[in-house]
Write a structure and sequence with these properties.
With about 70 residues, this protein is mainly α. The chain has helices at about 10-25, 35-40, 45-55. The protein has a domain at about 10-55: Eukaryotic RPB6 RNA polymerase subunit. Helix content is about 50%, strand content about 0%.
Length: about 70
């Protein structure tokens, strides 16, 4: 995770869950994984989404309300 974007555990869970749903529906992976790595994580969409989150390549952003 980059130093600029710090997410709460709820934001992180929402982002990973949304991306895992996309992956389970057939979206392409955004990280390079070979068959051995996929077999190691049992082709689990949540684990793939976590790997993408850790690499910082998730195409999902968080919009926070502006506090005055």
């Amino acid at each position: 995770m980059s130093d600029v974007a710090k997410y709460t555990k709820y934001e992180k869970a929402r982002m990973i869950g949304s991306r895992a749903l996309q992956i389970s529906m057939g979206a392409p992976f955004l990280v390079k994984l070979d068959q051995a790595e996929l077999a190691k994580i049992n082709f689990d969409p949540i684990e793939i989404a976590i790997l993408e989150f850790d690499e910082g390549v998730l195409p999902i952003t968080v919009k926070r309300p502006v506090r005055v």
